[in-house]
Amino acid sequence: MNRRELLASLAVALPVGSTKAASRTLQAAPAVLPVAGQERLAVWAYGGQVPGPVLRQRQGTLLDLELLNQLPDATTIHWHGLRLPNAMDGVPGLTQAPVAPGERFGYRFSLPDAGTFWYHPHLSAPEQLERGLAGVLIVEETQPPQTDAEAIWLLDDWRLDPNGRIAEDFLNFHDVSHAGRLGQQLTVNGQLGTKINLQTGQRLRLRLINAANARIFALALPGLSAWLIARDGMPTHTVQAWDDVLLLGPGMRADVMVDAQQAGDFVLVDRFGRITHTLAQLHIRGASQSAVRPAPSALPPNPVPSPDLANAQRHRLVLGGGMMNRFGWPAEFASEREARRTRRQAGERLADPVWTLNGHAHMSHTASHHPEFSVSRGQSLHLTLENRTNWWHPMHLHGHHFQVLSRNGQLLGERPWRDTVLLTPNDTVEIAFVADNPGRWLIHCHVLEHHAGGLGTMFEVQA
Ligand code: C2O
Ligand code: CU
Ligand code: CU
Description:
By secondary structure, the protein is mostly beta strands. It has three domains: 3-140, Sandwich (Immunoglobulin-like), CATH 2.60.40; 149-285, Immunoglobulin-like, CATH 2.60.40; 309-462, Sandwich (Immunoglobulin-like), CATH 2.60.40.420. The protein contains five helices and 31 strands. It has helices spanning 3-13, 125-130, 173-177, 332-345, 448-452, and strands spanning 24-35, 38-46, 55-58, 62-69, 78-80, 104-110, 115-120, 135-140, 149-158, 185-188, 194-199, 203-210, 217-220, 225-231, 234-241, 246-248, 253-259, 262-270, 277-289, 313-321, 355-357, 374-376, 379-387, 393-397, 402-407, 410-411, 417-418, 420-423, 428-435, 439-445, 456-462. Strand 1 and strand 2 form a beta hairpin. The termini are far apart. 45% of the residues are buried. The structure holds CU-O-CU linkage (C2O) and copper (II) ion (2 copies). One copper (II) ion (CU) is lined by residues 78, 80, 396, 398.
């Protein structure tokens, strides 16, 4: 690192305390770092670290940051969960041109919502995220709730080859057509054996982010009392006890308050698969037992408009394809696969079409594509997502947050706000939101290999 680069990487690591916009540079570059249990892992990093620096700003302030691309490939930054202007959304070929190696791009937008968000590339995402490009963006409430400690735990997994390097089998047919790319090494903030020390009586605000390409976490914190206060950056309407497993699909976040009521060692575990993984340890010292604290109060809601269901425009999005499906693949997939084989042999990293949305595989989202539907600004939308596949899909919406209305015909009492909703095999979920943000927006599966294999589409909100 030269001096300028060092200063730039330090600058992004500092919190922005004032409401004044601070212009910062965030460099994306290859690095060799102790990550995923390896002493020296060749990664791609934001600001020289994996995960990237935590960006922290107050609600209502301006994020002003310049990406400097020092990677060998073009890239973009997508600000996941942010309600921002379309031109800042980071989708190459749709909202901006790819940022070529050596080039810069300025991201500048205000932050209307407080919560836990994250940033990642939206170009060659299956490869670029897996190589380490992801970071957390925290937008603080104007009056943050009382806590004694905070932890930001970005969850990920890494597929390493027998030499301890990142396996370069990106977009292989098996991953794309099954559950996506799963890695054998599970990490918290890129590390194994994460541990936090607390005192009895303390309350911890824990921000959990699933940055894995494909892994779904089923999280539990046995023995500790904890409360869910926000999901996907949006406060829950009422505070709920976290006493069950918490399903966190790729892209999803949860904010939790954890009460350190008794001394001892506790663990955050993942129980999604047959094997229970220990992700992190909470070591609590002090008096053996402390008084039970009342539930935290709900966070102030973010200024998201509620959809007008009576006058909402309705659309259906049917998810199809994948291995072991009853309906088969469209006939044109065979010839498309053949064409892609040739391009792959010429060195391009490409997925095969495997998934469909309303009967079509959407392999890219360039401006030449037609929107799935187009509405005028302010229109309420009611979308029915029908998963006719045998796989799980975290469906993610850009530029807006939606309310989940129902799952398999069962109405949800609270209508939680989300930017990503996890569909289990054969699930049908209804969501609704106000399309108040002009531009062309994606809705796609956040299993990055599924999206690359066609599972996503684009709609338009007219200005
Ligand atoms: Cu987190 Cu379209 O992305
Ligand atoms: Cu997003
Ligand atoms: Cu999927």
